[in-house]
């Protein structure tokens, strides 16, 4: 069993029980990509992707997404004392968040980001200032306003900076788009986990649910629907794995990220929709839990770029 298999097994064990932030910290997930000399594990995005997928499979929030994106922004910077101090805090359990769409001029930060994952209770919020040379910025005086959404498994917020001074600003040595591509792939990983969870749950259900003295899984229409779910999930797996590999290797992931995000998030909505139908009447009840996955899949489809926006990226590459 390699590291990723062990991590996946461990993640399923952690998420099989009620998992709050302290359990995620105990498992070492916030520090996965933090260098080991700063208290982290020093692994790559490929390992982070395993955790992201398992969080989707369990429809769990826990504050991990925002922290993973913030760590990605900070580790993209050259090592320095201020950056390292932030990474040490995060590895030790400080919640973090990452917001985009800000400007930095003469040491002053302005801008507004909406639907920022896990910003409401983050101890560290790092901003991507991309109006000029891309920079990662840390500042005080941010206004953070929670934004309730139907998906109760996620905590989103609006982050506003109205001419506040930057306490730390680092020039980003890579294009800021690389961080957005990574965020899109993170959401694609989550949606893949959602789709696989609903495929498994549905196949298990149609084996035991009987009508006319037969398991409904023996009916041709149900078989076809399950086969469609499997095809969607299998294609999503291939695209997500390719995008994760590109991001982890530091390769150009613009196309693979767009393909993974556009397909996996749309496919997850379709798969959960079929799961709800195949569960019959119980699929529409709160007790089934299918609605939790449907809301999460629907939100994922919009976070960090809609399928239409990402398909436009692919079309521009090959048009």
From TrEMBL:
Stated name of the protein: Acyl-CoA/acyl-ACP dehydrogenase
Taxonomic source organism: Mycolicibacterium arenosum
Keyword field contains Nucleotide-binding: no
Keyword set includes Flavoprotein: yes
Residues in Acyl-CoA dehydrogenase/oxidase N-terminal domain copies: 13-93
Boundaries of every Acyl-CoA dehydrogenase/oxidase C-terminal domain copy: 180-317
The protein's required cofactors: FAD
SUPFAM superfamilies: Acyl-CoA dehydrogenase C-terminal domain-like (SSF47203), Acyl-CoA dehydrogenase NM domain-like (SSF56645)
Family, similarity comment: Belongs to the acyl-CoA dehydrogenase family.
Keywords: FAD, Flavoprotein, Oxidoreductase
Domain of life of the source: Bacteria
């Amino acid at each position: 069993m390699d590291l990723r298999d062990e991590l996946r097994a461990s993640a399923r064990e952690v998420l099989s029980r009620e998992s709050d932030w302290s359990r995620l910290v105990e498992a070492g997930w916030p520090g996965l990509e933090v260098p080991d000399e700063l208290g982290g594990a020093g692994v790559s995005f490929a390992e982070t992707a395993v955790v992201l997928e398992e969080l989707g499979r369990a429809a769990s929030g826990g504050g991990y997404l925002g922290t993973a994106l913030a760590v990605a922004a900070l580790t993209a910077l050259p090592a320095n004392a201020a950056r390292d101090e932030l990474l040490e805090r995060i590895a030790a359990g400080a919640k973090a968040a990452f917001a985009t769409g800000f400007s930095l001029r003469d040491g002053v930060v302005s801008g507004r980001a909406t639907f920022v994952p896990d910003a409401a209770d983050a101890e560290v919020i790092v901003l991507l200032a991309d109006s000029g040379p891309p920079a990662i910025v840390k500042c005080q005086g941010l206004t953070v306003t929670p934004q309730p959404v139907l998906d109760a498994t996620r905590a989103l917020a609006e982050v506003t900076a109205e001419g506040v001074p930057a306490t730390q600003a680092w020039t980003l040595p890579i294009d800021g788009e690389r961080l957005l591509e990574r965020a899109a792939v993170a959401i694609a990983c989550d949606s893949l986990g959602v789709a696989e969870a609903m495929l498994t749950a549905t196949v298990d259900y149609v084996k035991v649910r009987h009508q006319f003295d037969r398991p409904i899984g023996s009916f041709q229409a149900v078989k076809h629907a399950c086969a469609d779910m499997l095809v969607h999930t299998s294609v999503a797996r291939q695209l997500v794995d390719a995008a994760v590999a590109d991001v982890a290797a530091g390769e150009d992931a613009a196309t693979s990220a767009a393909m993974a995000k556009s397909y996996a998030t749309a496919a997850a909505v379709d798969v959960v929709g079929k799961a709800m139908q195949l569960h019959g009447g119980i699929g529409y009840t709160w007790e089934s839990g299918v609605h939790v996955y449907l809301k999460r899949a629907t939100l994922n489809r919009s976070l960090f770029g809609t399928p239409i926006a990402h398909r436009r990226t692919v079309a521009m590459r090959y048009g």
